[in-house]
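Next comes a single protein record:
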Amino acid sequence: MLEMRSTCERCANELPAEAPGAFICSFECTFCAECAEELDDQCPNCGGELLDRPTRSRANQAKANLVKAGK
């Protein structure tokens, strides 16, 4: 399952799972739109392409968190 990291790795802006505007690479490194643009859509960690991260509803995010916690 895709890990929905909640903050930009570069500037720490909040990136809620249900909100658009986050970008990820194939290793799930996560950046806000502004940082992704400044990075020319290239991940500084692995060199991969940064793409739009899909959104996840709050209800589905809550279920994913329960699964992750083993409940």
Observations:
- The domain at 1-71 is CATH 3.30.40 (Herpes Virus-1).
- The chain has one domain: 1-71.
- Residues 23 and 68 are 22 Å apart (CA to CA).
